[in-house]
Design a protein that fits this description.
heterodimer, A: 480 residues, alpha+beta, 6-stranded antiparallel beta sheet, 5-stranded antiparallel beta sheet, 11 strands, 18% strand, globular, B: alpha/beta, 6-stranded mixed beta sheet
Chain lengths: 480, 398
């Protein structure tokens, strides 16, 4: 253990005593101090704190990501190229221990910096919250929407694949009935067709025609929940994803199941037994709604939730010649239930970012174990960019899909699919956005990232890096 | 694993059989054969010198011994195991040609770090680091970063790290490179100390005098092959010649010696001159005097006492202990060395002129019964003995 710890200590010392690292540290301090002090937000108290929280944590994540790539590459490459590694390699310590020692040192120092930065940001946030002259309403809103960890529930969409298959069968049947020729589809065409049907079904689920209403159902909610449930939504006008902001009009309504109890009959807990239930529709007053912007409102949990289910609806009050209102049902309207404290969620966000930094360190350390520094940095950045854009590439190819680019589309889409399945998509670890909106960062989400990204995708790369590091003829790596 | 747990199979420390190292390019095409079919062995307690011009394969051989390069062919073992075996490295100390140290670490931190790699306890590391710093004359600079050191100081700290584990095999690549004569002498003295303690040392150097001073045996490489190997005596003794060294002789005595030599040899066959101090000896003398006068320096100072752990455990006799004491004295430079004294106080008393007279008068016959009145110094006894041998030989010819 002593040799391992010696390498860890050496790596930390190397970082602390290097000028580039000191510069990055300076940037980190600047960002932690300056960013919160220069941001204005959207003019609201909630927006101010949300922006401060999101930007500060995101800046810290970006700086530490840059730093870990640089430090990992430096520690592994320059040590080998300048000959210092020779001095270690002739001592009784295996190269695998050296690799792990360096990697641990690199990660450890960044984790400590991340923790310090997060402590500072938290303290500053609380200081600002206590110092600012917010109204009681603003404070209540901040505490319910920002300083909280809320679990999000999206509308129940059923078995989407089954619906897609049924819709495809219906369209083919219709084509047969009207005598339209049905041509054989190749793989890409079929995938594109399925995608378009899926988008169509989801759009129908979130579409509210003028003068009509739509109801959504929610499952898996807690059996009893007394606290306020927040309903968060973003309405698009005309088409899903439209960024045009317009003023629409509508109102929300809910299912309230009234429980009629028998006061003479009590259960074992001494509570009156529910004799019968009655479904009563409740509605909010009509309101002007700004499209493409995110909004929330609260409904008492004991009114909205009955036996772990809820139902809400939206009525489009616009005239019939107006544009259709759309909800993206995979995201909204969503129910937000308080699950944990802000501090707990904050620590989860820190854990997520720490895992992201760990993944970056793993990628950079693996490449730099057998490559020169510029090549290792280049490959690490290429890896990140490819991972970042591969998923966007797939969706954009499928969305456009012109006939002239069919072959290239197929190649590009195939490559992107391979890349998505092979590469760690580091951006998924950076959860500042979730934190700022008070969305619970689920342990299951973090566990999923850990298993599928770090273990399944990162470990093979790591093993390859260590094996090549172990095999390397160190005397040949030195710069003359 | 503790150092003592590694078993050394026999007195064979290094064994190379048909050792080949071929460098290849990216396409695996042969580029250069740096080492070609080397066979050699190094035994325990031996000081071996690896000699050769640039590109002869010395460094490649050393790097293969350390597991930094892998042989293309043949078999190489160090303490009976592969050079890549991690446990074998507990027994090895290595000083590379360039001191590849971490510039941001201080001298003390450097030694502490390398001590940690040998799994030494914190207490042991501190003790050894302090002693080694004292030994290499850098205790005053222990908190300075190595990056600020001069080349010589860096070499000293490099040498110290090579000895942190009290190695059984010490591999020194150009150990005196960058060192001042004082440092060179200390390195050589250290090598002698290691040898006395039964340790094995492999030295590569371009400075042939270094090799000559410290090595028992040398291997001369050229073109990746062994061109000559053997003990220094075997390789360097010029057969059929003798050298006599005496204190300065009185003119009449010298004339008598010359007469004897002329009677047996032609003028071209012998030569008489005044021996000179080597520049190294003269330099050391000057520095020792300066140190005695306490002149301040921020550079490396002459080494101090040998680290305790390097001295302990040796099975030295009383004479060896006395020799070590003498070595320690020489390292601490507290008094002048006898060999740098240019003139003995009473040279005339050492040689018995009557003996020479007698030899001359009696037609160069040896008179063994005539002993010198006073006990001569050691080197003079040897000189006399040599002289007697020569004269006896001449007698027999007559």
């Amino acid at each position: 253990m002593t040799p391992f710890l010696a390498i860890v200590k050496l790596t930390c010392r190397s970082a602390i005593r290097s000028n580039v690292f000191r510069f990055l540290l300076f940037l980190l301090i600047i960002c932690v101090i300056l960013v919160p002090n220069t941001l204005k937000g959207d003019g609201t108290a909630r927006g101010y704190l949300q922006v401060m929280l999101e930007y500060s944590t995101a800046f810290v994540a970006v700086i530490l990501s840059t730093s870990i790539i640089w430090l990992a590459c430096k520690e592994f490459c320059t040590d080998a190229e300048n000959g210092q590694l020779h001095m270690i390699a002739v001592k009784p310590i295996s190269r695998i221990t050296v690799w792990f020692g360096k990697f641990t040192g690199v990660f450890l120092i960044h984790f400590v910096l991340l923790a310090i930065s997060f402590v500072f940001i938290y303290a500053f946030l609380m200081f600002q919250y206590g110092r600012q002259k917010f109204t009681p309403e603003e404070r209540a809103r901040i505490e319910n929407e920002v300083f909280v960890g809320r679990r999000a529930f999206t509308p129940y969409i059923g078995d989407l694949e089954k619906k897609v298959n049924e819709e495809m069968a219906r369209q083919i049947e219709t084509a047969k009935k009207i005598g339209e020729p049905i041509r054989e589809m190749n793989g890409a065409e079929r995938r594109k067709f399925i995608h378009s049907v899926r988008v169509q079904i989801l759009a129908q689920m979130g579409e509210v025609q003028p003068g009509k209403s739509k109801v959504w159902y929610y499952n898996g909610l807690p059996e009893s929940y007394d606290a306020p449930v927040y309903i968060g939504y973003r309405i698009y006008s005309g088409s899903i994803g439209s960024k045009n902001q317009k003023i629409g009009e509508g109102f929300w309504f809910f299912r309230y199941i009234q429980k009629i109890v028998d006061e003479n009959n009590k259960d074992k807990d001494g509570k009156p037994v529910v004799k019968e239930t009655r479904e009563i529709p409740l509605q909010k007053p009509p309101e002007q709604i700004l499209t493409s912007s995110y909004r929330e409102f609260a409904v008492p949990g004991d009114i909205l939730i009955y036996k772990g289910t809820a139902s809400i609806g939206f009525a489009n009050l616009q005239s019939k010649d107006s544009e259709v209102m759309h909800f993206q049902v995979t995201e909204s309207p969503r129910l937000l239930l308080k699950e944990t404290s802000f501090l707990n969620n904050y620590l989860r966000a820190m854990l997520g970012i720490a895992m992201g930094i760990l993944a970056l360190g793993l990628i950079a350390s693996s490449f730099s174990a057998f490559l020169s520094m510029p090549t290792a940095v280049f490959l690490t950045l290429s890896y990140l960019i490819t991972g970042l854009f591969s998923s966007y590439l797939i969706s954009s190819i499928e969305a456009t899909g012109g006939d002239n680019l069919e072959f290239l589309d197929r190649v590009g889409s195939g490559l992107a699919a391979v890349m998505t399945s092979l590469l760690i998509q580091v951006q998924n670890f950076f959860v500042s956005g979730h934190l700022a909106t008070g969305t619970l960062i689920e342990f299951s989400y973090l566990g999923h990232l850990l298993f599928f990204n770090i273990i399944l995708k990162g470990l093979p790369l790591c093993v390859l890096g260590i094996w090549l590091y172990w095999r390397r003829e160190l005397a040949l790596t030195m710069k003359q | 694993m503790a150092e003592a747990e590694v078993k050394v199979p026999s007195d064979l420390v290094v064994s190379a059989v048909g050792l080949v190292k071929e460098f290849r390019d990216f396409w695996n095409r042969p580029k250069a054969k740096a080492v070609n079919d080397l066979d050699f062995e190094v035994h325990e307690g031996e000081v071996l010198g690896l000699l050769g011009p640039n590109g002869s394969g010395k460094s490649t051989t050393v790097k293969m011994l350390l597991g930094l390069l892998y042989p293309t062919g043949g078999r190489l073992t160090v303490f009976g195991k592969s050079p890549r075996d991690v446990d074998t490295k507990r027994l090895i100390g290595y000083l590379p040609e360039e001191s590849y140290l971490y510039k941001y670490l201080t001298a003390y931190e450097t030694l502490d770090f390398f001590g940690s790699l040998f799994n030494l306890s914190a207490l042991e590391r501190r003790k050894r680091a302090e002693q080694l710093l004292e030994m290499v004359g850098l205790s005053h600079a222990k908190n300075r970063p190595v990056g600020e050191f001069s080349k010589g100081m860096t070499r000293r700290i490099g040498l110290a790290q090579a000895m942190i584990n009290d190695p059984a095999l010490l591999i020194l690549d150009e150990p005196t490179s960058g060192l001042d004569p004082l440092g060179c002498r200390e390195v050589k003295d250290l090598i002698h100390l290691f040898k006395k303690r039964g340790k094995t040392v492999i030295v590569t150097s371009h400075l042939l005098s270094d090799i000559e001073d410290v090595c028992d045996r040398v291997i001369i490489l050229y073109g990746g092959q062994i061109r000559a190997q053997g003990t220094l005596n075997d390789l360097l003794t010029i057969q059929g010649t003798d050298r006599i060294t005496t204190p300065q002789l009185r003119p009449d005595v010298l004339e008598k010696v010359l007469a004897i030599l002329r009677s047996q040899l032609s003028e071209e066959q012998f030569r008489i001159d005044h021996p000179r101090m080597s520049l190294e000896e003269f330099f050391l003398d000057v520095v020792n005097k300066a140190q005695a006068e306490s002149v301040e320096t921020y550079g490396a100072r002459s080494g101090g006492q040998i680290a305790d752990y390097l001295s302990n455990g040796s099975t030295e006799s009383e004479e060896e202990l006395a020799a070590r004491k003498e070595l320690l004295d020489s390292l601490t430079r507290k008094e002048d060395k006898p060999e740098v004294q240019p003139e003995p106080e009473k040279p005339a008393e050492v040689i018995d002129t009557k003996k020479l007279d007698g030899l001359s008068d009696d037609r160069l016959k040896t008179k063994e019964e005539e002993k010198p009145a006073e006990e001569p110094a050691e080197d003079l006894s040897e000189a006399n003995a040599k002289l007697n041998d020569i004269l006896s030989g001449l007698d027999r010819k007559d």
